[in-house]
Structures are given as C-alpha cells and as structure tokens.
Amino acid sequence: HNLSLNECFIKVPREGGGERKGNYWTLDPACEDMFEKGNYRRRRRMKRPFRPPPTHFQPGKALFGGDSYGYLSPPKYLQS
C-alpha cells in the first residue's frame, strides 16, 4: 500500500536514523472520523447489478435481434 498517496496518513521519522528503508506512518488526527470501526478504505464499494458474460461472436447471427439488421456477411466482392 502506498500511504503517501493518502493525505490522511502522516510519515513519522524513525528513531536512530540510519539508512533503513521504509517508514512509520500514523493517522492524521484531523482524519480520525473518516474511518469507521477500523475500516481504512477510502470509499465504500458500490454494489453493481449482475451482468451476464458477453456471448461469443458467431458469423451470420443477428447482432441486435432484428430480422436482417446487424447480420454480418462477407463483402460482396468476396462472395462468389
């Protein structure tokens, strides 16, 4: 997780310095009310309606359910 992209987290310097990688982080007191019951997600996920998977392409099958509209056929110059 990249906490530096979230303004609610503040980088805390390590004691002793050194050349160690990584940082300690703390929650900005101004943002404490933003996270309910330990949930640190920024946004609530929205429930999306179920969508069936797309059907596979089948040559000669109507694309839009019409009688002739949407049928795919080879160009006339390729037809014999």
From TrEMBL:
Top-rank taxon, per record: Eukaryota
Residue segments, region Disordered: 43-80
Keywords (A to Z) from UniProt: DNA-binding, Nucleus
Location (main, coarse): nucleus
Gene Ontology MF terms in the entry: DNA-binding transcription factor activity, RNA polymerase II-specific; RNA polymerase II cis-regulatory region sequence-specific DNA binding
Coiled-coil residue windows: none
Presence of the UniProt keyword Calcium in the record: no
Residue ranges of DNA binding: 1-45
Nucleus listed as a keyword: yes
Any one of the GO CC terms: nucleus
Localization per record: Nucleus
Ranges of residues in domain Fork-head: 1-45
Protein name per the record: Forkhead box L2
